[in-house]
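name: query_chain
kind: protein
chains: 1
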Amino acid sequence: MWEIKEFSELTTQELFDLMYIRVKTFVVEQERIYQEVDDNDLTSIHIFKYEGKKIIAYARVFREDGHITFGRIVAAKDHRGTGLGAKLVEEVLRVINDKFPDQNIEIEAQTYVEGFYKKFGFKSVGDVFLFNHTPHIKMIKNHIII
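structure:
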């Protein structure tokens, strides 16, 4: 079952668990030194799934400069390649459609998952750029209908 919560609704345990999987993946595994926790966490809708006492998938959704964005998409290492990431993105798009109907979506995707997002109707725009020392590409999806 997917948990969908605003920041103020998170328990301290949930907050710890979601920060743990994010730091473990983006800072430790990917060796990217950057400010993982940021002000966007305060205004995000947090979407996550537990297996036992461990978060196995996580994403956050928030409004930014006239559009909706999402990020910090992560599946636990031992659950990658199982389709969980696709199910997470489907849930993210469902939440966006429910809470932000008729809003355009813009994301900054790591280039190695560009093809993954294209399967969900995202289109790449612009040139590849470095964000926190990692190649990214801007991708857009207009007015989703699920």
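note: The chain is about 30% helix and 40% strand.
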